[in-house]
Records
---
Amino acid sequence: MNESTPSPETAVPDPLPGERLRRLKILHLEDSPVDALLVQEMLASENMDCEIIVVSEPADFERELARGGVDVVISDYSLPRYCGTDALKRTREAGPETPFIFVSGSIGEERAVEAVRLGATDYVMKEHLRRLGLAVRRAVEAAESARRRREAETRLAEERNFLADVFSSVQDGIVVLDADLKIVQTNPTMEKLFPDRMPLAGKPGSLFCPGGDGSIAATTLRDGCPAQSVCTMETAEGKGEFSVYSYPLLERSTGRQKGVILYVRNVTHEHALQQQLFQSQKMESIGKLAGGVAHDFNNILQAIMGFSEILEGEIPEDDPRHADVLEIRKATDRAVALTRQLLAFSRKQVLNPVDLDMNGLVGNMGGMLQRLIGANFQLRYDFDSAPARVHGDTGQIEQVVLNLVVNARDAMPKGGEIAIATRQREVEEPEAAGRGAPWRAGRFVCLSVKDTGTGIPPDVLARLFEPFFTTKEKGKGTGLGLSTVYGIVQQHGGWVDVETQEGRGSTFTIYLPALGQEPPKGPAA
Ligand SMILES: Nc1ncnc2c1ncn2[C@@H]1O[C@H](COP(=O)(O)OP(=O)(O)OP(=O)(O)O)[C@@H](O)[C@H]1O
Ligand SMILES: [Mg+2]
């Protein structure tokens, strides 16, 4: 071997690029001062920048270990009061990755193998002490790269956990599809929504695409463009409306499309609120129209009424034309009553409000209501124990109760029980927000009329309060009963809530602001 070429055993490797340049702290367990000096000189001759702490007693060794910051432990194999393998054990306990090198003249091959098995990093025979520098460097490098690897793994695991947290925290469903539009992954929201479709992996993505033909995912896969659609799906919480969006799944490094991501958003609640908004806007415009017509029409009717009264006075009773004039009067009276109902619906009536107790109001109507509905029906009352006080127009509120009771009667052709109840309740902000307009927070008196009749199908429910909407046969209903209720209750600053089940009956509940509650601002006031 050429003298100028250092043997691999003795070559001093350059520091790794980026390797930290700092003083090594070496803890040397050695009872022989001569051997300790030898090691020190050997490392110095290798230009190794290090601080060597030499100890010979177990207690000192353990104390130094406990102080920390030890980069390498060099230990004799057999010491008078300490066994090298015990030192190794303590070192491993203190720091599993601290390099540990045996330096011994007496170790022997078998023991050396055993020492490595027990976790020693290396061993150097005293007669080959020149190897020590290299052994120390290698051990430090190995420990350093193990540390870097461990840190990188920790960072990777943290990143992975973070992404998993994000994935599982998204309240919308996420479905990842491969290039064959098969499901490869879903987030926990999907499991909560569709537990009966689990496991989803491997199933076709069309399960969550409107129409069931995978159309939007297929479009996105083909064109690389986002697509969106709406569909109705059965979930663990019942039937729901969903907006499904599909986005291309792209490989970050190449931009190549690997599949499709479906984003499944439950819009049932938004949809219901939107419907409610449409509904109240519709009622608002019908109200304006009806109110305008009724107002002008009423003026015309006043003229007809006035002139027919003049005619009635002028034409003698024995004149056959007198009866004709009376017919004009009767028809005009009916028309006036109708326009009054329309005015009530459009909240254009002049109210005469007083402080009143709903319990008393309903109680006073009892006899009249019973006569109105007939013997086939029983009225059951359930009044709130405290007076249910509101500020309202007695006649108008009586009209509301009457119309609701008549409708309840008409919904039970074979007779039955009609339950009228009053309650006071506090509507909290979250409930009001959840229910949407016209619900609002505050203290209210509720009056409910419950029947066990036909219930109301969805198509009727959507048009319930429209003036002239009726399902009754011609001549039986004008379709103004509920629009009058709607208008009167709104003019009092309240609203009407309907719960119904087809074939089981309906409950109409009116909410009126409890006495002392601010009426709402704006058009509903
Ligand atoms: N309690 C109820 N149960 C089932 N359906 C009802 C109930 N109340 C109202 N409806 C439905 O709503 C429709 C409209 O009711 P509304 O009171 O406005 O008009 P109407 O009862 O048909 O006629 P009227 O002007 O004589 O009251 C009814 O025709 C009926 O189909
Ligand atoms: Mg009616």
---
Amino acid sequence: MTDILPIPQMSPSAEGDAQATATAVYHDGSQREIHWNDREEPFPNGKLIVSRTNLDGVITHANAAFVEMSGYTREELIGVPHCVLRHPEMPRAAFKDLWETVSAGNKWHGYVKNLRKDGSFYWVYATVIANVRDGKVVGYTSVRRKPSRTKIDEVVQLYREWLAAEDAA
Ligand SMILES: Cc1cc2nc3c(=O)[nH]c(=O)nc-3n(C[C@H](O)[C@H](O)[C@H](O)COP(=O)(O)O)c2cc1C
């Protein structure tokens, strides 16, 4: 089992975007200052963004498109929990559903807003599956493709409602 590395710090862009800042608390109890803004990085046409994790959601593989879109270097990503990309506007219920689905051996599909190192974001349509070796789940793979704008608009509204419900609870 490889060591789990701490989530790297963000480096928000100095381009004058309106920034929000908060302390994110992750599932393992670790914390980090996050910064985000309203700048969207479009999903690259004709590409797939791929990563693999171990059973704990620690990144073990990232393709070139993943590295590029995240804004981190590959060295900063490998060995780090996947929540390094968690955007504060993503409801927890989405990830709960993801983990319940894939740990039961099923395929998960969903729309995810990801936070880049510089505070901007990108939307993906993700498919997550379990990697099975000798009948045992040894990790997970996520393949993301470009989502349709219509779907994103629907999901933004839905996630806003879920987040409000989570904040109220
Ligand atoms: C294969 C795989 C890929 C994942 N990809 C992402 C991702 O792109 N962005 C993200 O925020 N979480 C992703 N997750 C979910 C994270 O592991 C984590 O549950 C989520 O970021 C919420 O983090 P938290 O529970 O620490 O707050 C992925 C999980 C798996 C198993």
